[in-house]
């Protein structure tokens, strides 16, 4: 499991170190450089998934995250984040679940799809919700989210 931040540094010190222009926020490139300093297992191949996580952490969609958003993102990554697909989708779900209720609805799903660069009509989002929401309670839980997006390999594969 990764450490909370580079050893011997507070979150504030780590943030200040990667905030290269000292403007109180970091952009996606500054964030990615910082993640690579912190996690030696992160490589340039991980940039697309890390960039998506960054954009989901950017709650006001200004292309930058402040110390509060950064701390939340690091806390989510520290809850068992690895490079496997299940870890990435778990982090995505937790970033979408802003109220930390263990579920997301259509607005959060629409936000994810927009962050991924997809434009989907509201009818399509509702249809997708119906597909993923296995218990039909109007929300998607982490278990339902992972069941849809992370297909477990079948025996022998």
What's this model, at a glance?
With 157 residues, the chain is mostly helical. Helices cover 52% and strands 6% of the residues.
Please describe the structure with a list of short key phrases separated by commas or semicolons.
157 residues; two-stranded antiparallel sheet; Recoverin, domain 1
Can you characterise this structure?
The longest helix is centred in the middle third of the chain and has 12 residues, at 85-96. The chain is globular. The protein is 52% helix and 6% strand. The chain is built from 8 helices and 4 strands. It folds into 2 domains: 1-83, EF-hand (Recoverin, domain 1), CATH 1.10.238; 101-157, Recoverin, domain 1. The two termini are 27 Å apart. It has 157 residues and is mostly helical. It has helices spanning 11-18, 28-38, 47-57, 67-77, 85-96, 106-115, 122-132, 142-149, and strands at 25-27, 64-66, 103-104, 140-141.
Distance between the termini: 27 Å
Unreliable parts: none
| Major sheet summary line | 2 strands, antiparallel
CATH fold assignment of the largest domain:
Recoverin, domain 1
Strand order of the largest sheet: 1-2
CATH class of the largest domain: Mainly Alpha
Provide the β-strand percentage band. 5-15%
Structural class: mainly alpha
Mean pLDDT: 88
Domains, number: 2
CATH evolutionary superfamily of the largest domain: EF-hand
Work out the radius of gyration. 17 Å
Q: Name the CATH architecture of the largest domain.
A: Orthogonal Bundle
What overall form do the CA principal axes indicate?
A: globular
Q: How many H/I helical runs?
A: 8
In helices, the fraction of residues equals: 40-55%
Q: Output the helix-strand order.
A: HEHHEHHEHHEH
